[in-house]
Amino acid sequence: MSARTLAGLLRVRTVVLVLSFLMALIPLAHKFPAIGALPRIGPFNAEPFRASVLVFCALIVIIDASLGRKWADRGRLQWAGYGIDALLFAVIAYASWRFYVDVTAMHTAIMFFEPYQAWTVFFVCLALLFLTYRIWGAPLAIVGLIALAYFMWQFRDTIVDSLTENMWMALDDGILGNIADIVLSTVFPFIILGAMLEGTGAGMSLIRVSFHAMRRFRGGPAHAAVLASGLFGTVSGSSVANVVGTGVITIPLIKQRGFSSNFAGGVEATASTGGQIMPPIMGAAALVMADFIGLSYIYVIVAAIVPAVFYYLALFTAIVFESRRLGIEASETVADELKVSRQDYINLALIGIPILTVIVTLIRGASPAGAALFALAVLIVISFINPDIRRNPFKLVIGFAEGGLTFARLFIAVCTISIVVGALSSTGLPTELALSLNKISGGSILITLLLAAGASILLGMGMPTLPAYLTIIVIMGSTMRTLGLEPLTAHMFVFYFGVASSITPPVALTAYAAAAISGGRPIQTGVAAVRIGLIIFALPFFWAYNPMMLIVPQTGVPFQMVEFLFILVRLVAMTYLLASGTSRFDARPLHPAESAGRVVLGLLMIVPSPLVWGSALIAMVALAILQRRRPAIAA
């Protein structure tokens, strides 16, 4: 890359970050309360607020995706591309202006829609789908295009009124409707908080402390990767970003300990994926879930605790068995750059205090957005305990701008999902599909859950978790509820499989990102990730049949301590059986039939019948005793 090209890229990056910073101020001002004598700026009216954010987001992603990536190109093709980008922005800007004008007019007079309005909506839908394709790839854009085509076919006789009203003018299910409002009002502050937490520089300190804590374990770096990625992931909320942020350090060290490239990438992919299910911040989908259900976010956090703990326990256990299988011994040798200093422990406060602030403010009755804003204010103040921030406070500004860029990309995807939701809600397809699925499943909750799981994984391949979750819950949610699942149970089920799709081949984005670092093969890394994190596919079925696992009363089951303790015993047994079965090792190598038998016994722990899971528990104990009849390998 020439110096001229590099300078051009840096200039483009600066423009993008400046625009991202300015855009991020709009929703922040919308939510931030008055302080002292300073007057409150927001909240703004829905029409100008949502429209202006869309214009800013479109401008940011167009500059970032076009100018930033094609600066070195020359010739007519480059300028043709710039022309298309300018046209895309012009369409979105004009449509956003019409949204403000026309929706405002609807509040004061009855409007009769004109053909030019329908054409405006049609072209803005195509522009958003094209931008989604450029940012997020084909899967989400194809789903949005199919939904738009189905909508237009269903309303072909009244297309002017139907397209204009349902897709654009409606402030409930339109492109700038409820979903966009939830993301702006609730998710945005957490995205900024996550970016700022990364920008404070505590991530590297977290990795060093994790390696120090796990230095006496056989799996050493692999265990440290699980610990660091789990804690870092709940802050970032993005599995791919987590892999990139921590994997460049952890994966080479895992390989140095003696693990294969595929396994090293699989460990980092599964650990990073789990960050989206780890309370208290989790991913954007969990925040949207709370709004969709009409439930306080604190209940979602509590419900997610037990599944998240056992997910990471399963990862630790899988690493233990893999270490035994490979004969890897513990080593306390630590590279110089990973040696822990006093400042590293101090820097952990940059993660711990904001997270604690979120929890405390939520318990005291604050909204999720309010909790994130309080934590953001606290973080800015305490960030100066890090000498790097004191030397260069501008890093906080960069972190804030990076959060704005992340949100701009997400908001374009959310607009595409709003096209899907608008099409489905106005055509009544989810209700028809629910009736059809009830006939296909014969009222079987297992078949319905399997269909929902398969659809979540299929649609989640190549998609961010939030769009995958929203698409499936709109389609399958009513069916799952008619079969007796409470809203929280059903939404958590879909959410988990949306998260799991990022490590599921053939389109396992998180595993592929890890493979690029580890040097392993992408598909084999994805397979290794599924093997290591197999429990993420079993946990949703466990709470679907045993809702008390989620603890909170919104599952429709009263909490009973004795039964809950039995659930924990079954979860421990399932974790042990699945981890040893998929690793094909315990105290000694396992026969393939014994490995398969352990996996089956682990899945039987899901069945709520004491006769079934009790028998499986006895069989597990018998297998463990037989294992110890031969000389065991040292733990």
Report on this structure.
- With 635 residues, the chain is an all-alpha fold.
- Among the domains are: 3-179, no CATH class; 200-386, no CATH class; 560-635, no CATH class.
- It contains 28 helices and no strands.
- It has helices spanning 3-31, 46-67, 76-106, 115-136, 138-154, 159-169, 178-199, 202-213, 221-236, 239-256, 261-273, 284-293, 297-326, 342-347, 349-363, 368-382, 387-391, 394-427, 429-441, 445-460, 465-482, 487-500, 509-518, 522-532, 535-545, 561-583, 592-604, 610-627.
- The protein is globular.
- The termini are far apart.
- 52% of the residues are buried.
Q: What helical percentage do the residues reach?
A: over 70%
Largest sheet: none
User: In angstroms, what is the radius of gyration?
Assistant: 25 Å
**Fraction of residues in β-strands:** under 5%
Low-confidence stretches: none
Structural class of the helix and strand makeup? mainly alpha
Can you count the beta strands?
Answer: 0
Order of helices and strands: HHHHHHHHHHHHHHHHHHHHHHHHHHHH
What's the average pLDDT? Answer: 83
Protein traits:
single chain, 635 residues, mainly alpha, 28 helices
